[in-house]
Amino acid sequence: MSVEKDNFAIFGKAFQENLCQLIVLDRPFADQIKEVLSTEFLELKYLQVFTQKIFEYKEKYKVHPTYDIVTTLLRTGLEDQNETVQKQVRDYFARIQNKEPEGSDFVKETSLDFCKKQKLKEAMLKSVKLLQSSSFDEISKTINDALKLGSSTDFGYDYLVDFEKRFQIKTRNPITTGWQEIDEVCKGGLGAGELGVVIAPTGAGKSMVLVHLGTEALKLGKCVVHYTLELADSVVASRYDSCLTGINLGDLYSFKEQIFDTVQNLTGKLIVKEYPTKSATTNTIKLHLEKLKMRECKPDLIIVDYGDLLRPISNQREKRQELETIYEELRGIAQENNCPVWTASQTNRSGLNAEVITMESISEAFNKCFVSDFIFSVSRTIEDKATNSGRIFIAKNRNGPDGIVYPIHMDTSNVKIKVLQSNGESASDLMVKTSKEQEENLKKKYSKYKKNTKTETMPDV
């Protein structure tokens, strides 16, 4: 019969390093595991010292330390350790500062389970001695106390304990849209945990816009996961080929070698996953993302083309409620994966040939606008399509101004989209201008009609 080791050696070095990082990052987890964790469970001396410093600070000041405070602690509070351990502790902390812990849920669950079992084992050994004196009440209390240790302590944001957290500089880590004008108003692009929505009528090119956004991230060396619920995965991949190289979609087969040379030199990674329309839910996407993470493929940007075509997890009384729920879940995916999520939404009939599309034209569920962090619309009239032009309207922007109209050049033959400098017109200005143009056209037609009628009714002389 094998005897289980009383430390984390069986789980390996990486597991233990991720555990100690989570103790710094996650205050509720740190409070929970502190009840059952002995630093001796950690196999490596530098991790024992690191964790002890965190717990000592919490015990003394009653607040959870930030990375900045830990930096200070490790600069001034290691004099009692030898030089080798000091260097190992500081090197470890330097490594984890710009790195996300891997397998967080697994590490939390496994480490808590291990520690709670050790505490229960200690209680049972103590109970054996208590049997000799027949202290049944004390035995019961000893076992029950051990079982209570390590239970969840996450009761919410503690105003005092989490004091330092309020003063941490929060990094959005935005991913550029590839359009300087748009990046300027949304502070660099769409940030981690944020949901962006492209609104456009059918045939206006919203799928092309999503490919452009994915391509810009790909060129930066990011891992892009693109879910398509309408087009075939090979069609979407071909659009990436065209957007990356500038080669027309109709000529891709003639430039196969050139495209391959471009693709193989990319530092980013693209995964295109196709699901039939209305067959996938947000849970389907979550499951797929977990599988990718198990293969060391953590997404930096997620694209869902498009949210309206997802199947709701639960059937609601009205379609608008289902759509609202889907968009809430998409934002949840962005937060869980700590990366931006782009999706698209189709307009109702009023947006089909509109000069500018506002949020009032969004199809079915207007409430999904409340969930989104950044929304822009793409409008292209029949005349615009003939001249490869159109307009982008910033409809919602949590991180800057909105209500701005930008003219665009959009060539769907090679997925080339450029945003031009705004001429200062707002959506209301453009609508008034359009309304006046329509009024002038009607007046001209009416004058022409009256003139023709008068000529036809004039008696012969």
Task: Kindly summarize this structure in a few lines.
With 461 residues, the protein is of the alpha/beta class. The protein has helices spanning 13-25, 27-34, 45-61, 67-76, 83-96, 104-131, 136-148, 180-185, 206-219, 233-245, 256-264, 282-294, 319-337, 368-371, 382-386, 427-457, and strands at residues 195-200, 223-228, 269-274, 301-305, 341-346, 374-379, 389-397, 405-411, 416-419.
Q: What number is the mean pLDDT?
A: 84
Tell me what portion of residues adopts beta-strand conformation. Answer: 5-15%
Radius of gyration equals 30 Å
Annotation, overall tally of beta strands: 9
Spatial gap, N to C terminus? 124 Å
Query: Spans with pLDDT under 50 lasting ≥5 residues?
Result: 430-435
Q: How is the largest sheet built, in terms of strand order?
A: 3-2-4-5-1-6-7-8-9
Outline type = elongated
Structural class: alpha/beta
**What is the string of helix and strand elements?**
HHHHHHHHEHEHHEHEHEHEHEEEH
Q: Into which percent range does the helicity of residues fall? A: 40-55%
Tell me about the biggest sheet? Answer: 9 strands, mixed
If helices are DSSP runs of H or I spanning 4 or more residues, what is the number of helices? 16
List keywords for this structure.
461 residues; alpha/beta; nine-stranded mixed β-sheet; 16 helices; 12% strand
